[in-house]
Design brief:
heterotrimer, A mainly alpha, B mainly alpha, C mainly alpha, A: mainly alpha, globular, C: mainly alpha, Four Helix Bundle (Hemerythrin (Met), subunit A), 79% helix, 0% strand, flat
Chain lengths: 472, 119, 178
C-alpha cells in the first residue's frame, strides 16, 4: 500500500481532529453541570496546543501525495484562524448558557470548523480543498442554527444553507471543468509548471476557473454575490456572527491567493476578480450607510473589506501574504472585539438598532471606549492596527495596480469612514440606554481585552507578521 | 461480458417469473367477490385517509442518518476489493475511518435517537 | 467501445426504458408516480454502468441514489402533503421555462454526441487497457485508498459532524441538560 505518510506535515490538524473525536465522546459521558465548563475549556486547550505546535514546528513541504502542504506563510493564517476559534469560544460560553442552548455539540462543531478551515488553507489540491470547505460550511450551518427554537436564527441558517450549498455546487462544477480542461487536480505554484494553466485558448479552463472563483466569491460574501450576507448575519446568533464574518473570510481569501498565485497573468480570471473587488468596495460602503441595525452595518462593512482584500489577491509582490496576514489579523481582532462588546450591551435582545445605542456612554463608558477603538480600527483611522493594515495594503497594490486601483481603494476607505463616524456618534448620544448589560461574564471580558491587547501589540510591532513568515 | 453476468440474468428471470406466476395463479384460481369496501386500499384496519398530514421530523432524522452511513459503506466497497493487498496498513487506515463513524453510532445510542417509542 | 455502445441492442432497450421512465417522471400528475419512475431511471442507469464495466459506479448508483436519495425524496413528498399542495401550485408558467432549458441543453448535447470522434484524453492510469486488465473498481480503489487516504479520513470527520448536526438541530425537545 503506497501511502505518502507524513504526519509531521499535518500535526496541528491532527491535534484538532483528535480534539473533535475526544470532545464528542467526552460530551456524551460527562454530567451536564460538569460538561458545561469542561468542554469549552478542553476545546480552548486543544486550540492552544495546535497553535503552539504551529509556532514551534517550522517544517515545510508536501505530504500525502501532495494533497497537503505546510508553509510558514500558511501557518500564520492557521494561527489566526485558531485565534478566531479561541475568541469564539470565549464569547459564546455565557451567551449560550443565558439562552440555555449550551449544547456541547456547538464546541465540537467549532473545533471541526477549525479543522476544515486549516485543511482548506493548507492545500493546493482541489479535492482536499473541497472537503475542507465542506467541513467548514456544514459546521457553520449548524452553529448558525444553534438557537433552534428561535425563528430568525433558523431562517438565517436555512438561507445560509441553501446559498452555501448552491455556491459549493458552483465550486464543484468549476473544478470539474478545470479537470476536464487540464487533467490536473493540483493547482499549486510549484506543482503546476508555469504557463500550463495560463492558456486562455482552453475554454474549459476559462469557464471552469470563473465558476470556481464565483463560488468562492459567494462564500466570501463579495458583491455581487453578497446578498445573503446581511440577512444571515442579522439572524445568526451574535457569537456565531463574529465567527462567520472573520474565519471564513480568512479561509477564502487565502484560497483565492493560493489559487491565483502564479496565474495572475491569466487575464480572464484576474479581470473577474478585479470586477468583484471594485463592486464589493462600492456596494459594501454604499449599503452600509443605509442600515439601521448594527449587525447589518457590520455585515456590509465586511463586504467592503472583502473588496479591499481581493485587490491584494490580484496585485501583490512576493511578500503579499504578509500584508494579507496583517490586515486579516487586524480585521479579525476588530470584528471580534466589536461583537463581544455588542453581546455585552445586548443582554436581553439579539439585535440592537443604531438609535437604541443612545445613552450608552453614561451607563457603560468602558464599553464605549473599547467599541470606538475597534470601530476606528475597522475604519483604518491612524494609530490603530487597521490603519497599518490599510497602509501596507496600499503600498503593496499601488506600485503594481497603478493610479486607478490605488485611488479606488483610497476613495472607498474615505467614504467608509463616514458611516463608522456616524456609528461612533450614536454611541455618544445623550439619552437613557434601555437595554441591560451583561455584567457576570469573565470570559466575555477576557475576549475583548485579549482582542484589545493583541491589537495594541501588532500596532506597536507591525513587523511580527513578516518575522513569523520568515520574510524579515 | 455475457458470461460474467449470465448467472444474474438467470436469477432475475427466475425471480421475476416466480413472483408473477404466483400472482397470476392467485388471480386465475382464487374465488373473487368484489365489494366497495374491498376495493379500498388496505391500511392495517384503519379507514383510508387520502393525504398524509404533518410527518414527524423523526423520519427525516432517520433518513439523514441512513444517508450518512450509506456514504460510509460507499467508501468501504473499494477497500473490500483490495483488502488482502493492503494488509495491516490498510487495516489501520480503515479502522481509523470506522472508529470516527463508530463515535457517530455511540452518539446516537447515548442520545436515544434509535429508541422510536420515546417522546 | 463507443461503436459497440450504439450497435448493442441492450443499450437501446435500456435507453428507451430510461426515456419512457423520464417522461413519466415529468408528466405524471401524482408526485408519487414521479418518484417511483425516477427510481426506475436510476435502476436503468445502474444497469448501463455495470454493462460498461463500471461495476462500482453501478453499485453506488443503486446504493446512494436508489437507496438514500429516494428515501429523502419520498419524505419530501410526504411533507408536502401530497394532494392539496401539488394541486394548488400552478405549474403552467414553468412549462415554457422548462421547454426552453431542455432545448438549450439538447442543442449542446446532441452536437457534442454526434460530432464526437476519436477519444477523450486519457488521464492517469485509467486507460481502457488497465480497465480490462485490473478492473475499473480496483483502479478506483487504488485512487481512493492510496492516493487520497487523507481525504477519506477527513470524510469520516465530515460525516461525524453531519450526524451530530442532524441530531442537535432536529431532535424533539432537545435541551442542553440531557
Amino acid at each position: 500500500m503506497d501511502i505518502d505518510f507524513q504526519l509531521a506535515i499535518i500535526l496541528p490538524e491532527l491535534v484538532i481532529a483528535g480534539g473533535v473525536i475526544f470532545l464528542s465522546v467526552a460530551g456524551l459521558f460527562l454530567r451536564p453541570n460538569l460538561r458545561m465548563w469542561v468542554i469549552p475549556l478542553l476545546s480552548i486547550a486543544f486550540m492552544l496546543v495546535a497553535g503552539a505546535v504551529l509556532i514551534i514546528d517550522s517544517t515545510s513541504g508536501y505530504g500525502f501525495h501532495k494533497l497537503i502542504v505546510k508553509r510558514r506563510e500558511l501557518d500564520f493564517f492557521k494561527l489566526i484562524i485558531l485565534l478566531g476559534g479561541v475568541l469564539t469560544t470565549l464569547i459564546s460560553t455565557r451567551y449560550l448558557q443565558r439562552r440555555s442552548i449550551n449544547y456541547f455539540e456547538f464546541y465540537v462543531m467549532l473545533l471541526a470548523a477549525m479543522l476544515g478551515a486549516m485543511i482548506a488553507v493548507s492545500t493546493t489540491h482541489f479535492l482536499t480543498l473541497l472537503v475542507g470547505i465542506e467541513i467548514l460550511a456544514i459546521t457553520s450551518y449548524v452553529m448558525c442554527a444553534i438557537r433552534r427554537y428561535d425563528r430568525s436564527s433558523v431562517e438565517a441558517a436555512f438561507k445560509y444553507f441553501l446559498l452555501g450549498s448552491f455556491s459549493t455546487a458552483f465550486i464543484l462544477f468549476g473544478i470539474g471543468f478545470m479537470y476536464g480542461g487540464t487533467g490536473q487536480l493540483h493547482f499549486g505554484v510549484d506543482i503546476f509548471p508555469n504557463g500550463q494553466l495560463n492558456n486562455s485558448e482552453n475554454l474549459f479552463l476559462v469557464i471552469g476557473g470563473i465558476m470556481f472563483l464565483g463560488g468562492l466569491a459567494f462564500k466570501l460574501a463579495a458583491a455581487p454575490f453578497h446578498f445573503w450576507a446581511a440577512d444571515v448575519y442579522q439572524g445568526a446568533p451574535t457569537a456565531v456572527m463574529a465567527f462567520l464574518i472573520s474565519v471564513p473570510k480568512i479561509v477564502f481569501l487565502v484560497i483565492f491567493y493560493n489559487f491565483l498565485d502564479s496565474h495572475i497573468k491569466f487575464a480572464p480570471w484576474g479581470v473577474f476578480v478585479l470586477i468583484l473587488a471594485n463592486i464589493s468596495m462600492l456596494v459594501g460602503n454604499a449599503m452600509a450607510f443605509l442600515q439601521k441595525d448594527i449587525k447589518r452595518l457590520i455585515a456590509f462593512s465586511s463586504v467592503a473589506h472583502s473588496g479591499y482584500l481581493l485587490l491584494i489577491v490580484i496585485f501583490h509582490r512576493s511578500e503579499g501574504m504578509a500584508v494579507l496576514g496583517y490586515y486579516l489579523l487586524a480585521y479579525l481582532l476588530a470584528s471580534f472585539g466589536m461583537l463581544a462588546i455588542i453581546i455585552k450591551i445586548s443582554a436581553d435582545k439579539e439585535n440592537i438598532l443604531l438609535g437604541e445605542l443612545k445613552g450608552l456612554f453614561a451607563s457603560s463608558p468602558r464599553s464605549v471606549f473599547l467599541l470606538s477603538f475597534f470601530i476606528l480600527s475597522l475604519a483604518g483611522i491612524p494609530l490603530t492596527a487597521g490603519f497599518f493594515g490599510k497602509l501596507f495594503l496600499f503600498y503593496e497594490i499601488a506600485p503594481i495596480g497603478g493610479f486607478w486601483i490605488g485611488g479606488a481603494m483610497i476613495i472607498n476607505s474615505i467614504i467608509s469612514v463616514g458611516y463608522y463616524i456616524l456609528l461612533i456618534g450614536h454611541l455618544f448620544k445623550r439619552g437613557v440606554f434601555e437595554h441591560s448589560v451583561v455584567a457576570d461574564s469573565k470570559n466575555l471580558e477576557m475576549a475583548y481585552w485579549l482582542a484589545f491587547l493583541i491589537s495594541v501589540g501588532i500596532l506597536l510591532w507591525p513587523q511580527v507578521v513578516n518575522t513569523f513568515m520568515g520574510f524579515a | 461480458m455475457v458470461n460474467n453476468y449470465f448467472g444474474y440474468l438467470v436469477l432475475v428471470v427466475v425471480s421475476l417469473g416466480m413472483a408473477s406466476s404466483f400472482t397470476l395463479i392467485a388471480v386465475l384460481l382464487g374465488p373473487k367477490k368484489r365489494s366497495a369496501v374491498k376495493d379500498l386500499p388496505f391500511e392495517t384496519g384503519m379507514p383510508y385517509v387520502p393525504s398524509a398530514k404533518s410527518v414527524n421530523v423523526k423520519f427525516y432524522l432517520v433518513a439523514m442518518l441512513f444517508l450518512i452511513f450509506d456514504i460510509e459503506v460507499a467508501f468501504l466497497y473499494p477497500y473490500a476489493l483490495k483488502v488482502k493487498e493492503y494488509g495491516w496498513t490498510g487495516f489501520i487506515a480503515v479502522s481509523a475511518f470506522l472508529l470516527v463513524l463508530g463515535i457517530g453510532i455511540v452518539y446516537e445510542w447515548r442520545k436515544k435517537i434509535l429508541e422510536w417509542d420515546k417522546d | 467501445m463507443e461503436a459497440s455502445l450504439l450497435s448493442n441492442s441492450l443499450f437501446w432497450v435500456l435507453g428507451s426504458v430510461a426515456i419512457i421512465a423520464a417522461s413519466v417522471a415529468v408528466l405524471a400528475p401524482n408526485p408519487m408516480y414521479s418518484g417511483l419512475s425516477l427510481m426506475l431511471i436510476f435502476f436503468v442507469l445502474a444497469a448501463i454502468y455495470i454493462w460498461m464495466k463500471q461495476e462500482y459506479f453501478g453499485a453506488m448508483q443503486l446504493l446512494i441514489y436508489v437507496g438514500a436519495i429516494m428515501v429523502l425524496f419520498i419524505f419530501m413528498i410526504m411533507l408536502l402533503n401530497t394532494r392539496t399542495d401539488f394541486e394548488e401550485i400552478n405549474l403552467n408558467w414553468r412549462w415554457g421555462t422548462a421547454f426552453l432549458l431542455s432545448i438549450g441543453l439538447m442543442s449542446v448535447l446532441i452536437p457534442a454526441v454526434v460530432n464526437f470522434k476519436g477519444s477523450l484524453p486519457v488521464l492517469g492510469n485509467y486507460t481502457e487497457n488497465n480497465i480490462e486488465l485490473i478492473g475499473a473498481s480496483e483502479l478506483f480503489a487504488e485512487a481512493l485508498w492510496e492516493k487520497s487516504i487523507l481525504i477519506v479520513e477527513l470524510m469520516s470527520i465530515l460525516l461525524l459532524v453531519g450526524v451530530l448536526g442532524a441530531v442537535v438541530l432536529t431532535k424533539k425537545n432537545y435541551t442542553d441538560q440531557i
